[in-house]
Amino acid sequence: MYKQERHKQIKDYITEHKQADVQTLSSMLGVSGATIRTDLNELEKAGFIVRFHGGAALNSAGFHEAEINLALRGSNVEYNQNKEELGKIASHLIQEREWIFLGLGTSSYYIAKALSQRRNIFVLTNNMLVANILGANPSCQTLVIGGIVHADGMYTLPDNLEKELENKHISKAFFSVDGARIKYGYTLTDIDAYDTINLLRTKCDELFLAIDESKYGKRTFLKIADMDFPHSVIINESTPAKYKQFYLNHNIPVYTSSILSSNRIGAEGDEGDEISYRL
To answer: How many CB atoms lie within 10 A of CB 134?
Structure first.
């Protein structure tokens, strides 16, 4: 059984029973206790459960999210450490009471999770996973763009996006891409995401692309732009060196979790991590 399927069955069991022990899950899934303990560690990092000796219990703070996500998607978002890192970095770039836009995809979901305990965060989005996370925080203002619900991507899209965004101005907009290659630029698979990014580029002061390391070297269906167009990037430290060098050569602002005290932007992450800015 693949890990993704194990995680789904573990989530379903714990959602129903509120807790589970390692032995029960091991017998149910036909895998070793060590495998189950690794799975539980990953689910705890994702905020779904709280570990205890010999098992785990549903995280009460995440119970509302779990129920809604199970209803919307049939499962929670699969934990991704690289995207979680991007989300934490992005959260330090967002100030109170400035309007931001969070685009499609799970990278925006992880940005929302990093913002979920903040106060006075103002978000415009068409990402239903983002709305689910931030909607539970009464100190956040979350405005969802209305329209047709696209179940596969968990987003909404109005008939006339330009009219929906008329008279709206965004301080910062955050998006992800499906591919990034120096020769072919940034690419997407979803036409709706392509239209949204192109329109928001004209509506925001700063455009950020949060790109996890797995997207580099890939080329998909629709080209957004060359990689040197005006924007900022949020990347993992493990991003291939040639792409880091490309950004440096083209004076593209890069945000990572490296400790570069001489270029520190004045924010500290969880557990004292510094968020760095490189020209």
So the answer is: 25
Residues whose CB is less than 8 angstroms from the CB of residue 214 and which lie 6 or more positions away in sequence, other chains included: 82
240-278 pLDDT per residue, tens: 999 999 999 999 999 998 733 334 433 333 434 444 444
CB atoms inside a 10 Å sphere around CB 31: 16
How many other CB atoms are found less than 10 A from the CB of residue 238?
12
Residue 185: partners with Cβ closer than 8 Å, 6 or more residues away:
223, 224, 225, 226, 227
Separation CA 226–CA 239 (nearest Å): 18
Whose CA is closest to 7, among 50, 60, 49? 49
Report residue 67 as tokens: 């129920």
Model pTM score: 0.71
